[in-house]
Amino acid sequence: MAIKNAFYAQSGGVTAVINASAAGVLETARQHTDKIGTVYAGRNGIIGALTEDLIDTNADSATAIAGLRYTPSGAFGSCRYKLKSLEQNRREYERLIEVFKAHNIGYFFYNGGGDSADTCLKVSQISDTLGYPIQAIHVPKTVDNDLPITDCCPGFGSVAKYIAVSTREASFDVASMAKTSTKVFVLEVMGRHAGWIAAAGGLASGPGCEIPIVILFPEVTFNKEKFLATVDRYVKEYGYCSVVVSEGVKGEDGNFLSDQGLRDAFGHAQLGGVAPVVANIIKDGLGLKYHWGVADYLQRAARHIASKTDVEQAYAMGKAAVEYALAGHNSVMPTIVRESSSPYKWSVGMAQLSNVANVEKMMPDNFISEDGFGITQACREYLAPLIEGEDYPPYKDGLPDYVRLKNVAVPKKLSEFKI
């Protein structure tokens, strides 16, 4: 078997553990130098492949690569860029082949969510459509937890832990002030179409720590009157209430409550700002004093409070991707298979990319309480293992001591390409 180089890149919104997957890819590849030569990282995702902006990961030591396991965000830069079909933009595929040929690349590892899976699927088809041998393996990642087939997605467990902890801590705060001040705290979390992250806020309340929490899911159409009645009831009973709202909540007209009319690079509505919308509904409808906050990048960058389960699964997905490629697989994605919830046991499986790309996994109906504002016991049993365990990074002078790679550029061999 001829030695081929590999390409690895990160795509879409980054997470607290995406670099753990990178470590899994790079460390495993370094154990198979008889089959994989150099792993070139794409600077800023697929854009790095198209523009021949490659990073020589061999320039970084084994210690630095190991440090990726506890370092958040994307070590090589990410992007929001979706390849069009071969028929729509053949020049991009021909360019990819030029770059792959120039650098002897036979393996393609793309670390991302749903749109990234679509990109990886399209690259995997180059072998059949354009005759260039390439094995493309998707490495799952998304805080939204909306990839199908896999039980959960690396990145989600840590966000869920952050939101559960933050909801509990903020609820303690508002409870302290409720007698003479704030009665309601509204926390906005990510989740365009799926309410997995918002659901995690429900874990803040449990046996021995009961907290009045209202959750607004994208899967449940927002009903203002019903919502206000629930908040009013909780405030009268407990003296306060916390609201966890997903950015993707829609009104009865089918529009996002926070849609500002803007679009991102994938053509999706640019969301954000639903917390003040909901807070003003509470003020106008109930006259209650409120505070609101937006978790935003904080929720997905919080490596200091990452779930140990999440870190281990993220690394395992990167490792499995390389092993699947070496075994001859193409157009697949390693998955997390739940074998039992209590005790929690999981293993690594495999999914065909054709069954993953452009498919979103929503919250099941039996995970949302009957009134539409909370989570069920089934949901708790699903979520609880995913936030288990602590995996603290090393600290220096009171702050996390994160790794920054050299990111040495590979000399270019081709002419400039504009995207």
Describe the protein's architecture and organization.
There is one protein chain. Helices cover 33% and strands 18% of the residues. The radius of gyration is 22 Å and the shape is elongated. The protein is built from 13 helices and 13 strands. The two termini are 34 Å apart. With 419 residues, the chain is an alpha/beta fold. The strands form four sheets. A five-stranded mixed β-sheet has the order 3-2-1-4-5, sandwiched between helices. The protein folds into two domains: 4-141 and 305-359 and 390-400, Rossmann fold (3-Layer(aba) Sandwich), CATH 3.40.50.450; 156-303, Rossmann fold (3-Layer(aba) Sandwich), CATH 3.40.50. β10 and β11 form a beta hairpin. α1 packs parallel to α12 (308-326). It has helices spanning 18-30, 46-50, 62-67, 90-102, 114-124, 126-130, 156-177, 196-200, 224-238, 274-286, 296-301, 308-326, 377-383, and strands spanning 4-10, 36-42, 54-56, 105-112, 135-140, 184-189, 213-216, 241-246, 290-294, 332-341, 344-352, 395-396, 399-400. Belongs to the phosphofructokinase type A (PFKA) family. PPi-dependent PFK group II subfamily. Clade 'B2' sub-subfamily. Its main location: cytoplasm. Residues 9-324 form the Phosphofructokinase domain.
